[in-house]
Design brief:
- InterPro entries: Caa3_assmbl_CtaG-rel (IPR019108).
- This is Putative copper resistance protein D.
- 71% of the residues lie in helices and 0% in strands.
- It is mainly alpha-helical and 301 residues long.
- It has one domain.
- α4 crosses α9 and α7 runs antiparallel to α9.
- The longest helix has 49 residues.
Length: 301
């Protein structure tokens, strides 16, 4: 299995793993445990980033568009949401060293810019612009001819995916709230990708023949068939993500509704005034006879 060992990717992956392990240790010392599935999400996301770049998809990216597409899908569509899920608060505030975190926290311009970019409508707009710009022929083929530009392309895809998923997964909260608008948000973002995949499938010509015009033949594919395979991969993963998002956010919304109903019922029960004690029932009253007062004078004669 071909592998392209890139020291930069390995170093960045190692730093990400070490920083997360440090955050988990700090929280453990403070009496807070990090769920195993949350840790698995982070480590799985880091592993997918490394596999996408140095694994088979990266090795064949210069020869097959379908391999190049697999690289992008692993990075942006699978690894990004896993990383966000793994970084959920309180881990999020301990990922960076305290001094570096303070520097970012004090930069109001940085915080304001990120706050604006991660708004759902803005994030989807940025996602669409960046995604389509990189798939224009000059940018796409230029990234394949330049390692530095290719690395920047990967970083761009990962960043725009983080923007889209951030508002949906809300890592700044300890628990992800269930809100049904998030289904529409993820659906809209995936449709941006679906339309691009449809263009690859039904475009009728190979868009990147300048780089894939001759390399696909050694694998028994024409450039157009390779491009259509890449488009099919995009659309298939988009459908899977939409279904997962639909299930996840409906389930979270139902769980939150049940939790609110239970809390309201408890609050209503606690606010209800205590019932007044019932008067004692005498044996005569129970038998249907009028009670005789003890103060009634006795009859004479």
């Amino acid at each position: 299995m071909p592998v392209e060992l890139e020291p930069t990717v390995l170093v960045v992956s190692g730093v990400a793993i070490a920083a997360y392990a440090r955050a988990v240790r700090v929280l453990r010392r403070r009496g807070r445990s990090t769920p195993r599935r949350q840790q698995a999400a982070w480590y799985g996301g880091v592993a997918l980033v490394a596999v996408a770049v140095v694994g088979p998809s990266g090795a064949y990216a210069d020869e097959l568009m379908s391999a190049h597409m697999a690289e992008h899908l692993l990075l942006a569509d699978i690894a990004a949401p896993l990383l966000i899920a793994g970084a959920r608060t309180p881990v999020l505030v301990h990922l960076l060293p305290p001094r570096l975190l303070v520097i970012f926290a004090r930069r109001r311009a940085i915080r304001a810019a990120f706050g604006a970019l991660r708004r759902p409508a803005v994030a989807i707009g940025v996602y669409a612009v960046v995604l389509y710009a990189w798939h224009l022929r000059p940018a796409f083929e230029g990234a394949l001819r330049s390692e530095a530009l290719h690395a920047f392309q990967h970083q761009s895809f990962l960043a725009i995916s983080v923007l889209v998923w951030w508002s949906a997964l809300e890592p700044g909260r300890g628990r992800m709230p269930g809100e049904l608008w998030k289904i529409g948000h993820i659906f809209a973002a995936r449709m941006v990708s679906v339309f691009l995949g449809m263009a690859f499938i039904f475009g009728g010509q190979a868009f990147y023949a300048g780089v894939y015009g001759s390399t696909t033949q050694r694998y028994g594919l024409t450039p157009l068939a390779d491009q259509q395979t890449a488009g099919g991969m995009m659309m298939s993963l988009d459908v899977i993500i939409i279904m997962v998002a639909l299930t996840l956010f409906f389930w979270r919304a139902a769980a939150d509704f049940d939790r609110r109903e239970a809390a309201a019922a408890r609050a209503s029960e606690e606010a209800r005034p205590a019932a007044a004690p019932e008067p004692a029932v005498t044996p005569e009253a129970a038998a249907g006879e009028p009670a005789v007062s003890a103060a009634r004078p006795a009859r004479r004669g």
